[in-house]
Amino acid sequence: MTSSSYQIIVRNFSQTTQYFYVFQKQAAFPLLPSHGPILSGSLGCQSIGNYASSGAQINFGLDSQVYAGALSTKQAASPSQLIALLSLNAATLSVVGSSSAFRPVTLTTVDGSPDNCTTLTLDPLGLSAPANQAGVAIGGFGINVPSYTPLPRPELYCGVVALNDNQAIILSSFVAPFPNAVMNCIPKQIFFVKMGYQPVGSTVTYDESNSACCDFTIGYAIYTVTYKADGTFSATGGP
Fold first, then answer.
1. Number of domains within the chain
2. pLDDT tens per residue across span 95-126
3. What is the residue range of 26's domain?
4. Are 176 and 154 in contact (CB under 8 A)?
5. How many angstroms separate the first and last alpha carbons of the chain?
6. Number of Cβ within a 10 Å radius of residue 214
């Protein structure tokens, strides 16, 4: 983790041990033809007992840096089979059945950004050092996607990546990109905590209902999330 990071503290006030997982608000992928579903990855998952009796809490840490990422499966994989975990040591590595790459990027501003777009290569898979490119959506970054065949099932996924406090790089919000195009991705540094078991890197059903919202775009660096005995959440931001 860098010194600039987000912290989400979770306290369980129900009477039973519960699993909780973290996922990011879905990014927008504008300026492209239909790209299929937007997929989401679990960024952290742990279990915890009753806070009042044990004093135990979960601390999910997330890097505030925005990363662009790409993952290529070596064989066709449905979204339910896809593991969005890229690596465990903040470097480009192979994982079972796939290869992956990621780069830190800056988001496009009204005045432009010097490092708002990266270029994807497929053989071998890689992302170039980011550089300025005109036409990228404000608040987003771009990935130059080369020609590839996405049918009968996508074997390439691109989107925004998150780095958690275990140094795991995970595709957080991602799509099968359109070939021969600049994929625009507009991420939001907003995260949700939900009850349930979703292993780190697994694709999750995107559902904000009955969850705690941790909005880091409004200046907070820490959120304390409380899971109440009645099954509802509250979230309180702090410096």
1. 1
2. 335 678 999 999 999 987 789 999 999 988 99
3. 5-238
4. yes
5. 18
6. 27
